[in-house]
Structure formats: structure tokens, C-alpha cells
Amino acid sequence: MLRIDKECMCPVCLDILKDPIILSCSHNLCYECAAQLITVLSLREKDSKVFSCPICRGCTFLTSLSPECLPKNLVLKNIIESWKTAQEPSSHILCQLCVENPKYATSECITCESTLCQDCSISHLSKPRFAHHKILHLSKVKQELCMEHHLEEDLFCMTDCVKCCMKCAQFSALHNGHVILTREDAKLRLANEILQTKEILPQIYSKITTTKEEIKHQFNELEEQQQKNTNELDEVCNQLNSKVEAIRNSTKTKICKSYETLKQNLFEKIVILEGVLKQAQELSNLSDDLSLYQKSKELATIDPQLIIGDKPEVLLQFKNQSALNNLLESLCILEMKTSEIVESNKLYYLSRGSKEYVCYDLENQRVATMSIRSADIIPRWSGFVLLPNGNILITGGKPSKESGAKLAAFYLNPETGDTMPAPNMINGHSSHICLLINNEVYVLSGKNEINQTLNHCEVLNLATQSWRSIASMTYGRTCASGVHIKNFIYVFGGYQNTVNNTIERYSIEVNNWQLLPTVLPDRLWQHGCYALDSSQILIFGGEGPSDEPHRMSYVYNTTTDEFYNSASIPLTSTWLFFWLHVTRKGHMLYSINKENYILKYNIVTNTWIPLAN
């Protein structure tokens, strides 16, 4: 069944599509949203006519910088308009209880599914056998019915904090084993929370409004910065051009003077030789033989080669041209700082204990199962990290639960399935944290060669291909989660002697670990974490102390030490994100599990969306 309110949402304004246009990648946008994005494109790149889809980053080529050149999705527009019409209460619906001359209906009895006028609504409830029926205004009927079963949502799932109908509670796998109450009981149970929610709603509205204004301010600042940077570039280049032009003119003058000097010297030699030739010609006309003999002796002493000398030339050398070229190329360094990251268009799942791995292409939305071509296998309990060159570094692991961890590591080219050995680690590591930071790979804690939890940490320099030890963590941990923010590494939870909720922070600059006084709201292990920006970390999934699934996420603010933005992860299975690859594209996080199910998280709306592939 098509869910217009969810499946026909614009990725830009997050509202139902209005006058949808369709891109080359088959995704849709509101006409006005497309116009705004094209305006931003024209401001950023005046001559560019390549429009990037905000969902998949696929390219659509524009014939002009106007949304008019994009095809309209008229079929989808008609479907949405029909749906909107169906959502609106019709003024032509008649009361089904009026015997004669039925009046226009204003309400509907949910229990007996009859439309009622205002008079019949009153009389309907006045009868004892109908007193328990529930009557709603027509405008609210759609809101109170379950979209899947078309029954009244008269129950409340305390576990997921959502309304549901009787069939959802009884038969839906999403609510299996959850605490289900009637709406009245749920209101009583959540009375304080509801009151608090009502109190903080104005704060939330104010916060969102403030954030919106901040983003508008950032947009205006970007436009000003763009103009300022462009002007500065023009000014520097004009100065360089003036300097180069001055050097060219000055050097041209020097070249002309040098050549004129050399040419003058040659001309003087030519004059001398012409004088000698004239003397030789005059000798041939002498009648006195003795005078001829005397003069010829004088001419014989002249050596023309001495007059010629070395070949004159002017050497023009550009001794520092290469250095100058490098200097000019590095003169302007453009660095874009933004949280709108595209880490990778590829999402990977490594099947530990085998040669197989799965690659999901975010652009083409295709899954490919591949296999390592060499004798290597992906060890159980190993760690991995995606490198800037697209290869994957796989570290440590162990063959069985009771065996010790490996020191070995190797590189995997996921495009070809080829592997290449990497330097052995200093210590064995399994169930450890693996992070890429500034062309170095940090391997933190886990279990060692004798299968004991260790707090040893080490770093691989990808340029020198060498490992070095760094400060040890306060506690040894397995299946903890770690993330890099600014110049720090944060490590959350994990398993020591039991599942814990402590937080440690490592200073890369000082090389020391600090156990923070703040603790996680839950004891967690095998969970994931991800840096949303320079101060906020998303913590999600995993398991609790009794291996119970943790189907929640929340945000930790490193500046205020607060936890907020709790969100439910709508999954029936357990996702152990510690073992999974998580990548970011724009305002979406993506992950994939061994069943090839895709899960994405919308950073803007703080919602999780499972996608069966």
C-alpha cells in the first residue's frame, strides 16, 4: 500500500511533494525546492549546469539554470492531489442515521463506522447501548485510525512510545513482547512526562526557529565569503600578473642590451677585417716587390681565429621555474569545512570467518556479494577501517572464541578482491576499536594473544607503514565504540568484567587517557557511535548487560556533557553496530547487516528508517 505521507516526501523540505519534478536518477523534488537548489548552484558555480541529487548525488544535466528545464512528474502529482482530496473531510458526506432529509455529516462513529450529523451525534450517545461508542469529527478520523489496519489506535506501546491498534499489538512483529497499555492507562502512567513535554514544546519551537535563523545567517555569510574570497583571489592574481609583467619588461630590456653589446662587438670585428682585406687588395697592386714583401709579412702575423673568438651568445635561464610552479600551485589552498560529508558511496559488510564480503553502492542502490581471491580470510572478531584510497585495512581477530588474538593485518582491495600484507601489530588485538585519523589507523584495546582483555593501544602510520605504541587506556575493553572529534578520541562502554557505561577520552596531542565523570545512560557493548559534528556524537544500537537488544539512539554533547535526542530504532532483529560499517552521505547515515538489510538515519529529523534490500 502506497504511504503518500512517507514515500512521497521531498528530501529538501521534508514535506509532501508539491508540483514534483523528476531527476535523471528517478528521484523527485518539489518544484520550489529544485529552484532554490539551482539558485544555490548558480551562485556557487556560475557556469555549471550539472545538478546533484540531494538523495543519491546522481548528476542531472540542466539545459538552463531554471527548474523549468526539468520534467514534471504529472502522474505523481495527480496521485498526491487525489490523496489530499481524500484526506480532507467532504462537505457533501451525508448523515447515515437521518431517516428523512439527511443533513450533512460532521462526525463519524468509529465503533459502528457511521457518519453522523450534529443532532444524531448527540442522540447516538444518549442511548445506553451506544454510550460507550467513540465519535470523532470528520477532520480527525484519519488521524485516529491505524493506516495499516484502518482500526482505531486505542492502545499505546510503552516500549516504542507509539499509538497502535489492537491488530498491531497482537500480530505485528514490531510490538512483539512490548508493554502495551490502553490510551487512558498510558496517559496516567505518562502524566508527568506529558506535562514536561508540553512545557518544553515552546522551547523546542524556539530552538528550531533559532536554528533556522542561524542557518539563514550562515547562508548569507557564505555568499559574502564567496564574494570576498573571489575578490581576494582576483587581487592576488592581478598583483602577480603586474609583477610578472614588470619582470618580463625588465628582462626584455636586459636581453636587448646584452644582444646589442654582442652585436656591436661583432660589428667592430667585421670593420677590422674589412680594413685588413682592403690592405691585402692594395698589396696586389704594388709595383715595388720589396714593399710587397714587407707588407705581406705584416699581414701574415694576423690570425683571423683570434679575432673570431668564442661564439657569442646570451643564456636565458629559468633556474627556479619548477619551484615557482609548485609555489604558484600551492599559493591558493581551498579547504571546505562542513558537516555535510560524503564519506563513501560504498557500504561494506565483512563476513568474518570467511572470504566473503558485501558491497552496497549508494548511488546505484545495488548489492554485490564478492570474495577474497587470495588465501586470506576475514578473521572472526577482527577490526576493519576504510582507507582514503578505497582499500580496507583488516586487523587482528582470532580463529575461535577461546584462542588468542592475532598480530597480523592485511589490506583488501574491495573492487578486485585482491589482498596485500600489512605490517604486524605490536600486540594481538581482537574485538577492538579501529579508527582512521589523519592518515593513521588507531587500534584500541580488545583482547590480546593470550585471550585476555588488554588496554594496550597502537597506531599504524600509513605513510611509513610502521606501528607505534601510544598511552594505554584506563580500562581494557572489548566491543566498545570509539570516535574521533577535533583532537580527541572518545570511547564509550564495552565489556570489562561486565558490560559498563563509562566514557574515556584520549588527547592525541598530549598522549594520555582520561576517565570522564559522565557515564552513558545505559550499560552498552557492541554498539556504534558516530561524530555528527565537532561536538555531537550519536550513540546507537548494540546490547545491554543481559544481551538484550538496545534499539535506541541518543546524542552525546562533548561540550555540555548532556545526552538528548533519544530515538527508537524500528528493528525486530539485533544490530550489533560495533561490527558493521557506517558511512555518511549528506545528512544521512547508512549501515548494512549480514542479511543485506539497509538501515539509514536522518540526522535532520532524528529518525531511523529500515530499508529491506
From TrEMBL:
SUPFAM superfamilies: B-box zinc-binding domain, Kelch motif, RING/U-box. Residues 205-239 form a coiled coil. Pfam families: Kelch_KLHDC2_KLHL20_DRC7 (PF24681), zf-C3HC4_4 (PF15227). InterPro entries: E3_ubiq-ligase_TRIM/RNF (IPR051051), Kelch-typ_b-propeller (IPR015915), Kelch_1 (IPR006652), Znf_B-box (IPR000315), Znf_RING (IPR001841), Znf_RING/FYVE/PHD (IPR013083), Znf_RING_CS (IPR017907). One of its GO terms (molecular function) is zinc ion binding. Residues 10-57 form the RING-type domain. Residues 90-138 form the B box-type domain. Keywords: Coiled coil, Metal-binding, Zinc, Zinc-finger. It comes from the Eukaryota. This is Uncharacterized protein. It comes from Blepharisma stoltei. The lineage of its organism: Eukaryota, Sar, Alveolata, Ciliophora, Postciliodesmatophora.
